[in-house]
Automatic annotation (TrEMBL), chain A:
One of its GO terms (biological process) is transmembrane transport. Its main location: membrane. It comes from Streptomyces aurantiogriseus. This is ABC transporter permease. Belongs to the binding-protein-dependent transport system permease family. CysTW subfamily. The lineage of its organism: Bacteria, Bacillati, Actinomycetota, Actinomycetes, Kitasatosporales.
Automatic annotation (TrEMBL), chain B:
One of its GO terms (cellular component) is ATP-binding cassette (ABC) transporter complex. Pfam families: ABC_tran, TOBE_2. This is ABC-type quaternary amine transporter. It comes from the Bacteria. Keywords: ATP-binding, Nucleotide-binding, Transport. Residues 26-256 form the ABC transporter domain.
TrEMBL record, chain C:
This is ABC transporter permease. SUPFAM superfamilies: MetI-like. InterPro entries: MetI-like, MetI-like_sf. GO terms for cellular component: plasma membrane. It comes from Streptomyces aurantiogriseus.
Amino acid sequence: MAALTATAPARPRKLLASRKTRVGILYALPVVVYLLVLFIYPIFSTLLLSLKSADGSFTLHWYVEALTGVNLSVLITTLRISAETALLSLVFGFLLANAISRLKPLWAGLAMLVVVVPHFISALVRTYGWIIMLGDKGLVNESLAGLSAPGAPYQLLYNELGVVIGTTSMMLPYTVLLLYGVMRGVDRRLLAAAASMGAGRVTIFRRVYLPLVAPGLASAGLLSFILSLGYYITPALMGGPNQTMIATLINQQVTKDNQWNGAAAQGVILLLLTLAGLLLVKLVSSLGASRKKRSAS
Amino acid sequence: MAEFGVATPSVEVAGGKPATATGKSLSVVALRKTYGDVVAVDEASMEIAAGEFVTFLGSSGSGKTTTLMMIAGFCEPDSGTITVGDRDVTRLAPQKRNLGFVFQQYLLFPHMTVSENVAFPLTLRGVAKDEIRRRVGETLEIAGLSGFGGRKPRELSGGQQQRVALCRALVYRPPVILMDEPLGALDKKLRDQLQVEIKSIQQELGLTVIYVTHDQEEALVMSDRIAVMRNGLIEQFDTPRELFERPRTPFVADFLGAANFLPGRIEKHDGEHTLVRLEQSGGLLKARRHDLTSGTEVKVAVQPGRLRACATDDGFCTGTVETATYVGTLVRAGVRVDGGDAPLLRLEVPAGRGPVAGERVGITAYPEDVNLFPSEQGG
Amino acid sequence: MMELRKTLAGRIALTAVATVILLFLALPIVVIVVTSFSSNAFAQFPPEVWTLNWYKALFADGSKWPAALSLSALIAALSTVFSLIIGVTAATALTRSELPLRSAVYALVLGPLVIPQIVTALGLFLLFEPAAMLGSPLAIALGHTVLASPIAVLILIATLRGIDERLEDAAASMGAGRLTIARRITFPLAAPGMIAAAIFSFITSFDEFYISQFLSSVDTVTLPVRVYNSLTFEIDPSVTAVSAILIAFAILALGLVALVRWLGSGRQNSLLSVETATGVATPGGDAI
């Protein structure tokens, strides 16, 4: 019996496995085809266009143009505003997430609702809300005038301050959500353990708490930086001419100047910056994971 | 290899089989399953009679669950055949086999009520509505669940959920019901109660049940026959009594009876008995007749409950009681045997007549209770 | 639970900081809703005289808003259908089968969520412009699906992972065929997740701006593009009322998702559960 059946043992199992594989490929087909045609292919054609001169030959002209003169300063502005936004949303996000992680569940739930709900309201609408609030007769200036602050009303719109306020409020839900998750994962008994060894509050914060949440902080900061890079609505509506960001420029070149190649080159630069940022995030999180693993073993 | 095939229905099996059995027979021939280089089930064969309660007993990794999954159709064998009644189901999808399956995790459909869960297999079979209502009510009543039909599974306790799962497998009268550690998630008391209930339902309805467990006691309580499995092999397939009293391998003797093992050598045969010279004490032990030639190195296996303390000059060896633990109706004693530093010999004797620590005793056993295994046989 | 003792000063500082930052998030939204009822629709807060004029103006003759609204709704509906088809198939492939290159497929799905939307929009413009499909609602819906379908896929993956696969085995053991299992077991259990996926696909498309702007023509202006234009070029006070309606719409949709999940979970979780809200808020969370 054993000798007879041993000759063709693996066949039915392989059939079953290949059936499951066939089903998998069949069901994965729609999403793969769809995204290849409407996502990957367009990005490749953008890349090709950015390397093509008017007569169709290969050129780096558009990249040179994108990295010189006014375009370069736009790129630098983009990086600067993104960095400012990342820093602010990291600080605010840290403070808020830290506060929420210490609240009672009901209050924490309500607070998270206030964080999450705006995230699902159109950024356009929220930006408009800021415009109403920050105007000369808006809520902020009226309140400051009511407190008889010297020099009120202040110019809070159509400058870098306005842009950073706006983009920070757009990025804040991301950093709060990310950091809240990280902070809930911190075992608070570790802090008590440190206190039992005689560590003061500042020492506990600096030597125990901060190292535990550091990878989360790094990812959250990087993430809001990346997301700000390609941001368009808020800077365009709340900034002045000096706050033109790269996305605004791409939009102008396509819709107004009909300058597709230049737009494509800038799009590719934006894409590369984003991918580099994502790579960093990945690096940081794998660093954090390996540290966790080491401390666990 | 492990073909203890032919059904030898003992007295217990025949007695438990009612005239109106709904169960069918099941036969498994040379079933084999490998995962890469690991042989999960190695040429397992067995014949299960209609109306029989059979348990696959073994620790995890023994192949018991894999065998059950192959019978159910959730896992395809590399080779071998599975026959239900006279239908070969080896290559059929699970839904075409018409078997019943009770899972350890109950797996009740959370979006359906208890009644809807139990009715589900009947609706699949196109049974008329009135008939469904009647049979669901009837089945729930058997399981003591009348009045729970409108509840959702999550509103029931673990024991109740498992009863519903049982109903769902019973209601369409499948020819064979497979159960994969169905009581594993329940506490001891509930488990004991449900063991009795499942057994009595099985006998009443004449069901063929294949039951998987790692709990020896559960297997002994419920089964007509038990297949003891290890490393993908069926070590022995027999009635509980045979397994307990006539284990065929040292593993079975140890797994079911927690036997004491003593090394020795066959001295001679004497009519109904075989005499063994023990290595450690030099004493002569009388066992029931075994077909082993004189001079063979053997392992002597005797269960703790079958050893008796006696006067020091009456036993096959002597020793000193080192520990004596009172455990209710029994005293568990550990005896240091003279003439070596072998592990303590374990005895279970009725409380009240038990030896006390420090006492000098002789050890004896009825020849019927002594099993001999050739030393080269693993264990 | 062993924890550091909280000081009173610490607690007050904590509450104050949390309140200020929460106001920072919530105020712009509150201000719009209040201003939409104000007689002076621009930059004055709080309003002196209350009115419904801006809402009435939305539906007055010659208003461009109803057309924009219906166009956006049409596109969002199309995009939702596409996203659900893609989402159900892809989630099935990724959770219920053996898929070669699984992680590559997963990365492809996450791609549109992490790549700047302006890049995606630019690529789609370069794809549809030569095909003379600019201004086609279908093209815009196809474009929105690039952003909406990954969200649907992620929600449905989570949904299918949450359904014990062995329930399907249990049904099979009783004789249920593949179709019956899908219809009577998997679908009813996945329904809350599918509704959530549909709602989030719809919102994603309905609020999408970049792709709409690149692919729109004079005749096809979606609601967000109309809002943007009215904020930059043609000052139209009704934009406040539109914004307030969009806010109400988003909150309604989120409430619906929470309700469906609550019903689906057997009313065990709190309706306000943070996990309910955040579980869907960061669908790309594990990408980063």
